């Protein structure tokens, strides 16, 4: 089997199926008072690791869904870090700069995300960490968004309309209403 | 920093002279140590507050050059301000430590933890103290290299107290985890100690760790060596100043300073 054929064993239906699992994890994060982002790593059509945002619980701003899942995979004892070269990541929100470069160091094969992250997205929205040729040490990877984009956005809106006692300066938000109209992607 | 044409303005904590507090102590036999420590733990738990820098037991050899000639052990009970001598004597008597009562005496110990080596050397003469000399980031990098790790080190400092919160080197080789960079190791160490992280620190950054520092709301970053291949704080990106990000911080690089120790560390790819 050549490389191209290997790349495309997952069908469009599979992409949505994996992203649904990532969304369930994002929902779990929401219910745990965390920023609702979830992800799964898929290797040969099998989910080998999953995670959701845990920054508040861990008191650690770097415990994003991707880092949680990466640590699950590497601490399982079943895989070396080489496995990521054959993995696709499905994450509900575009990876941030930190995660984007972490994924590049791991040599991730492909990233699929739900909605863009216009504040600090690292794979196209604000930075192009995934394909910047100046970052010459690690291979580039493709990153495609739009899978269950609206669901991912609505989860984030639900989170941010809710009062967050973990914020540095908690804001009272009782007058805010949840918007349900979503603009098309840029 | 001593190569710079500046004199550092040190904090009051770093320049202050010895100040002392009075504590109760008693000489004890080695075989008594365990029981006396149990007595202290049970009866004087909160009385040792604010003296974590002071060692509980002092051991003085009768002859430093010939340690076979025996030694004297002295144990520290608590500050004199928290219990009167009469009350401490009564407490000892009621716990069958009557024989310690005539040995009780008051000595002076350093009131504050030593911050500098000079303070430590001077103040420990009174009574032994705990002192953890900060390992500089470069020394951590050298240590990493000696262990076969990628030679990068990082130190996180709380500038308000000038204390070190975490000091880690890169551990990618030993952990076989490609993301165990010194900066992330430090962030995790600080988070695990449940201290909010808003401190300056030292290291060489790339985009992952640069953004990890944004997420951690770092105050200032000092680094020793630029990283032309992937540096996120000046070389490739300036993540610390990016307008769309929700936190910004200051970054300093050692300029015009040739530190031989850095040159011995290989070109680093992070």
TrEMBL record, chain A:
Catalytic function, reaction form: adenosine(34) in tRNA + H2O + H(+) = inosine(34) in tRNA + NH4(+)
Known EC number: 3.5.4.33
GO cellular component: cytoplasm; nucleus; tRNA-specific adenosine-34 deaminase complex
The UniProt record lists the keyword tRNA processing: yes
CDD domains (alphabetical): nucleoside_deaminase
Biological processes annotated in GO: tRNA wobble adenosine to inosine editing
Pfam families linked: dCMP_cyt_deam_1
Keywords: Hydrolase, Metal-binding, tRNA processing, Zinc
Transmembrane segment boundaries: none
GO molecular-function term, one example from the UniProt record: zinc ion binding
Highest taxon of the lineage: Eukaryota
PROSITE patterns per the UniProt record, alphabetical: CYT_DCMP_DEAMINASES_1, CYT_DCMP_DEAMINASES_2
Residue ranges of domain CMP/dCMP-type deaminase in the record: 13-125
Homology family: Belongs to the cytidine and deoxycytidylate deaminase family. ADAT2 subfamily.
The protein, known as: tRNA(adenine(34)) deaminase
UniProtKB/TrEMBL annotation, chain B:
Keyword annotations of the record: tRNA processing
Limits of the CMP/dCMP-type deaminase domain: 128-252
InterPro entries documented for this protein: CMP_dCMP_dom (IPR002125), Cytidine_deaminase-like (IPR016193)
GO molecular-function terms, A-Z: metal ion binding; tRNA-specific adenosine-34 deaminase activity
A single GO cellular-component term on record: nucleus
PANTHER family membership: CYTOSINE DEAMINASE FAMILY MEMBER, INACTIVE TRNA-SPECIFIC ADENOSINE DEAMINASE-LIKE PROTEIN 3-RELATED
This protein's name: 8171_t:CDS:1
